[in-house]
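Quick one: Aryl hydrocarbon receptor from Brachionus rotundiformis, structure tokens please.
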Amino acid sequence: TKRRRRNVKNYKHPPKENQKSNPSKRHRERLNAELENLASLLPFEQNILTKLDKLSILRLAVSYLRIKSYFQVNLKNALLFAPESDYKNSQIFYMDPNFSEGSSILESLNGFVFIVNTNSEVFYASRTVEQYIGFHQSDIIHQSVFELIHSEDREEFKKHLQWDSKLPAEKSNLTLNEVLSNKEYSKYLERNFTVRFRCLLDNTSGFLTLDIVGRLNVLHGQKGLTE
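--- reply ---
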């Protein structure tokens, strides 16, 4: 006689109430925790940080690292080439993390500092930008500058981002390196023009006419020019 085999089913104990059984949920929770930690490292006020979405946190983190890298290189070069008699003062100004005069100088300017690369991306904006056009730093850094400029003024702005747009006909054969290395040619990199920027402040009609004064320069470590 043949014995019938019993079908033995594997019995799994149900997960405990406090035990997390969803891998996707655990992944989301870890990701959210890392993003919260990353956001806490950004140099913005808490009320700004709480409004940031995930993509904004990543965008601003990348921008902050790029800006930090750029200024570290430039400040290091400033110390290396400073006169020996001024070295100590320069070291205090650039290297002391508790020195706050830099931000005070920016706040006292009649305007704000804007760095735009040749890809028309806002590389840096001083926090005083909010006083003039109503946008916070976090709204515009690492974003296209054309989102802020009146549609009729975008071509004008784009033209001034081209390094050779002010070269006279007799100097048209100059290369960028030749212009950068010769002080006599530095005037060809200077810019002074007017454009209309979007403005969120109540005392404007949606746009504010701004005088843009600056010059083109190399963004060290960023593989591009900046204005």
